[in-house]
Each structure stands twice: as structure tokens, then as C-alpha cells.
């Protein structure tokens, strides 16, 4: 696997970011891309998808839903809810002091089936002045997120929407396992789109690039995942994880005036023990209060630049 290979999930769903309309995915185009990169395992998965010239969208949705169910398993095992909450709670405390705007809106970009926001709504008791809004292009995943939230009577909302063109004020953007899907210019654009709506902070948690990440990911996916696409893209995600400098450069190029630093981002001798890190973006005016507010966690946060 190589970092320039595309993830299969990104090839199987094509959504217009403006109209949110789903476009037909042509089998020959997907096959040509996979052939160009020599992605034989992915080509076998695509051969199993019914449909003629156009890949059957209902079958593709089934694959994506099963894969996201398995992805939730990973989010659960890696405690992604707690992971974000340890930074989010102090951030919310600072925002409560520094802005009179209510609700304080937290938007999960590419929320999928909404594990992190549903976890926060179920466990974090953030308060009624906090709004949790998950956005994703995929209506099937959002449908599942909405019905799971309804079943559990959770105070969080999910919308089929482009997270960057919402008609509401966003105070904090967050994401889990999303940032490596944006590459090159679109990574810079990812930060530009967020900075343009003037949030107070960004928290983007993703796989930490290291020599151990693909091996660890392969082991985890062999042990815990069964859906072929989930296994394929899961390991490829670890290969595609952005090195810290790539992420910081893109953030600082596209995402000014926010300042950026990694939490848990320092390279370690045993990277398997710290397999995820979080890129934090923050407005200068609340930077030092935020650093004070995270208290004993401060040594794990690098200096903002
Ligand atoms: C890897 S998946 C989501 C994983 C999910 N965060 C989780 O942890 O289970 C990436 C998702 O990002 C969504 N996406 C990409 N760009 C987006 C945007 N601008 N607005 C909303 N969703 C977006 C895609 O539709 C896709 O479902």
C-alpha cells in the first residue's frame, strides 16, 4: 500500500459539495483508477459490487454502513469520546467565559454514524447551552446517526450537509479519522474553509503517522474487522496518515489567523502506545486561557504557532 493510493470509500461515493446530490459512480472509472495504482485487493472488492456500468448505490451503501459500524468499534476501543472530551471540556469552559453567544455550537465534520457526538451527548453532560451538530455528505450514514440518537434520546443533531457551508455560526469544529482524506491543495482548503467562518477552535483527531501505524492498524483490523472495505481502507488510512509537518504546514497556510499545535503529537520510541493525535487550532485571544484550562494535560500539548 502507498500513501498516494485513494481509499476505496472515497471512490465509491461521489457527492456534489454544493447541491449534495449523489452522482452515479461509473465502474470503468473506478476500475481504471485502481488499475493505475495496481490496487488489486480493492479491484476484487469492486468486482463483487452488482450493477452494470454504474455501481449499485444501495449495495455500496450497505458496504459503507457495515464498514462504519466496524469503524465505531475502533472509535470505542480507542476511546475517541474521552479523547476529545479532555480538550473539549476545558475549551467550553473558556468559551463560556469569553463569549455571550449561545448556544455554543460544536460541529463534527464528516461525522459518519455520529459515534463521537452520540458518546458526548450520552456521557459528557456538557450542558443545555452546548449544541452538538454532526454533518456528513452521506444520507444513509446520517439516517443511522439520527435514528440511533433518537432511540437513545440524545441531545445531538445530525444533518446531511457540507460542514463548511452551514447557515449557522460554528464555535468549534472537530473531526475524527477524517483529516487524512483531504490531501494536497484540498488539505489547505480544508483549513481555509473552517477559518473563513471564524470559529474559536478546531480539534482534529486522526491516526498519528509512524512506522508502527500500518502494522498496528493491520493487526487491529485482522482481529476486529470483517468487512473487506473496512479492512482495506483501515490499513490504507494508517499508510496515508499525514506526517505532522504536512498537517501543520497546511493548517498554517490555509487556516490563519488561528494558531496551531499538536496534542500527543511528539514522535515516540514506541508509537504503538500513542496511535492517535489531535491537531488543535485556536484563536490567539483564548490561547493562554485554554492552555491553563487543560491543566495537567498541558505537557502533552506543543507550543502554538
Ligand atoms: C472516514 S468517514 C467518517 C468517519 C467518522 N468521523 C467516524 O469517526 O466514524 C469521512 C466522512 O467525511 C465526509 N465528508 C467529507 N467532507 C465533508 C464535508 N465537507 N462536510 C461533511 N462531511 C464531509 C464523507 O461523506 C465521509 O462519510
Structural features, described:
- The protein has 12 helices and 7 strands.
- The protein is of the alpha/beta class and 305 residues long.
- The protein has a 7-stranded mixed β-sheet, sandwiched between helices.
- Helix 4 packs across helix 10, helix 8 packs across helix 11 and helix 9 packs antiparallel against helix 10.
- The longest helix is centred in the N-terminal third of the chain and has 21 residues.
- It is globular, with a radius of gyration of 19 Å.
- 39% of the residues are buried.
- The site of S-adenosylmethionine (SAM) has 20 residues, from helix 4 and strand 2.
- Helix-strand string: HHHHHEHEHEEHEHHHEEH
Number of helices: 12
Shape: globular
Global mean pLDDT: 95
Cofactors, ions, other ligands: S-adenosylmethionine
**What proportion of the residues form beta strands (DSSP E)?**
5-15%
**Quick one: biggest sheet?**
7 strands, mixed
Uncertain regions spanning at least 5 consecutive residues? none
What strand line-up does the widest sheet have? 3-2-1-4-5-7-6
The tally of domains stands at: 2
Give the radius of gyration.
Answer: 19 Å
| Beginning-to-end CA distance, first to last residue | 33 Å
* CATH A-level architecture of the largest domain: 3-Layer(aba) Sandwich
CATH homologous superfamily of the largest domain - what is it? Vaccinia Virus protein VP39
Amino acid at each position: 500500500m502507498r500513501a498516494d493510493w485513494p481509499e476505496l470509500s472515497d471512490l465509491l461515493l461521489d457527492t456534489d459539495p454544493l447541491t449534495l446530490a449523489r452522482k452515479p459512480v461509473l465502474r470503468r472509472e473506478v476500475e481504471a483508477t485502481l488499475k493505475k495504482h495496481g490496487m488489486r485487493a480493492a479491484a476484487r472488492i469492486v468486482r463483487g459490487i452488482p450493477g452494470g456500468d454504474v455501481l449499485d448505490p444501495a449495495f455500496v451503501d450497505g458496504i459503507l454502513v457495515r464498514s462504519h459500524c466496524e469503524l465505531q468499534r475502533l472509535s470505542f476501543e480507542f476511546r475517541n469520546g474521552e479523547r476529545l472530551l479532555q480538550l473539549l471540556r476545558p475549551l467550553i469552559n473558556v468559551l463560556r467565559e469569553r463569549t455571550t453567544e449561545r448556544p455554543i455550537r460544536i460541529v463534527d465534520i464528516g461525522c459518519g454514524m455520529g459515534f463521537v457526538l452520540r458518546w458526548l451527548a450520552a456521557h459528557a453532560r456538557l450542558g443545555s447551552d452546548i449544541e452538538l451538530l454532526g454533518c456528513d455528505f452521506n444520507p444513509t450514514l446520517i439516517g443511522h446517526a439520527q435514528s440511533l440518537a433518537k432511540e437513545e434520546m440524545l441531545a445531538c443533531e445530525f444533518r446531511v450537509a457540507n460542514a463548511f457551508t452551514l447557515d449557522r455560526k460554528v464555535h468549534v469544529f472537530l473531526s475524527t479519522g477524517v483529516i487524512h482524506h483531504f490531501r494536497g491543495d484540498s488539505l489547505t482548503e480544508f483549513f481555509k474553509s473552517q477559518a473563513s467562518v471564524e470559529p474559536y477552535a478546531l480539534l482534529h483527531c486522526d491516526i498519528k503517522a509512524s512506522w508502527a501505524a500500518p502494522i498496528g492498524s493491520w493487526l487491529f483490523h485482522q482481529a476486529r474487522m470483517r468487512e473487506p472495505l473496512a479492512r482495506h481502507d483501515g490499513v490504507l488510512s494508517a499508510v496515508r496518515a499525514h506526517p505532522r509537518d504536512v498537517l501543520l504546514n497546511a493548517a498554517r497556510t490555509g487556516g490563519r489567523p488561528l494558531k496551531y499545535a499538536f496534542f500527543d503529537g511528539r514522535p515516540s520510541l514506541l508509537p504503538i502506545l500513542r496511535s492517535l493525535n489531535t491537531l488543535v487550532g485556536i484563536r490567539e485571544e483564548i490561547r493562554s486561557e485554554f492552555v491553563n484550562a487543560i491543566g495537567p494535560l498541558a505537557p502533552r500539548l506543543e507550543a502554538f504557532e
